[in-house]
Inverse folding.
């Protein structure tokens, strides 16, 4: 059964928020109320909603700053945001309100439900975000790499070692959870170290782009957190022996190492990187080196001009 969309309500007016929550729930939506903007970001980072409604008709300290923070984060920027305003006046600058839609008081709930439905439909149509992780997909990744060319940045390709046999043995639902987990770890690491771009190529392949001097720091954080969580995925005997039984591509049973990740770091301001396609070519070679080790590792290209 498909899960109903989750809507977060940010309002300092408790009675109005409760009424709106009940009306949303009557339409089958999951609705959560966040009274303080200081708590909103933490709640969204731990459990992202599908849509956000911000009540500007009640005091909303820090709302604009919170919206700007969300819009600057590649993981959260696609989430539709609808604003509620006390009157339907023309805004001098919508740049201060990075919204997807708005509605004025008094609320016409039929109109609000239509705007919610349209916003959720629009986001599926416009963005190429991966439905499993919500991270930007290949079109956005290609654009981000092209815009990064020549700058002192690093494009980092991430994938999971031995993911297919894990999927086959433990099931697709567990495999999907590992992919979501890695997406969250990567996004948090990039954001907490100063920001950057995160994308999901597909399957167990990811990309993040950060300043070159921060690339190794981010890789170490991602690897550390991934390896810690991997320990919770296997029983004690499997962890102690360091492998489990799975079929290889020839259909033969063999020892399969525990999950790990490989990261290829490609400094994009190198004279050897003359076009975006070259970035992926270099990354493929680097990942082959990283995968020679069963443990999680990263390889950085330090050559001058290739």
């Amino acid at each position: 059964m498909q899960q109903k969309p989750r809507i977060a309500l940010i309002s300092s007016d408790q009675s109005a928020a409760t009424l709106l929550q009940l009306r949303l729930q009557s339409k089958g939506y999951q609705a959560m109320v966040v009274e303080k903007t200081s708590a909103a970001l933490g709640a969204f980072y731990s459990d992202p909603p599908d849509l956000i409604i911000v009540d500007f008709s009640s005091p909303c300290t820090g709302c604009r700053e919170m919206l700007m923070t969300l819009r600057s984060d590649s993981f959260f920027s696609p989430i539709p945001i609808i604003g509620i305003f006390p009157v339907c006046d023309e805004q001098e600058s919508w740049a201060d309100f990075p919204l997807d839609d708005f509605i004025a008081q008094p609320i016409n709930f039929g109109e609000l439900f239509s705007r919610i439905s349209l916003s959720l439909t629009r986001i599926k149509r416009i963005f190429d975000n991966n439905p499993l992780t919500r991270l930007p997909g290949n079109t956005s990744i290609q654009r981000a790499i092209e815009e990064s060319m020549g700058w002192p940045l690093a494009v980092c390709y991430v994938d999971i070692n031995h993911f297919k046999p894990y999927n086959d043995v433990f099931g697709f639902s567990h495999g999907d959870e590992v992919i979501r987990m890695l997406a969250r770890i990567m996004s948090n690491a990039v954001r907490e170290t100063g920001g950057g771009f995160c994308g999901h190529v597909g399957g167990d392949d990811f990309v993040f782009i950060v300043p070159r001097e921060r690339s190794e720091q981010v890789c170490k954080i991602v690897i550390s957190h991934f390896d810690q969580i991997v320990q919770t995925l296997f029983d004690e005997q499997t962890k102690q022996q360091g492998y489990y039984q799975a079929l290889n591509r020839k259909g033969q049973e063999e020892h399969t190492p525990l999950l790990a990740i490989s990261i290829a770091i490609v400094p994009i301001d190198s004279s050897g990187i003359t076009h975006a396609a070259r970035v992926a070519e270099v990354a493929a070679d680097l990942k082959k080196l990283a995968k020679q080790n069963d443990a999680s590792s990263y390889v950085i290209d330090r050559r001058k001009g290739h």
Observations:
- The first strand starts at residue 6 and ends at 10.
- The longest helix spans residues 172-192.
- The chain has a mean pLDDT of 88.
- The two ends are 51 Å apart (CA to CA).
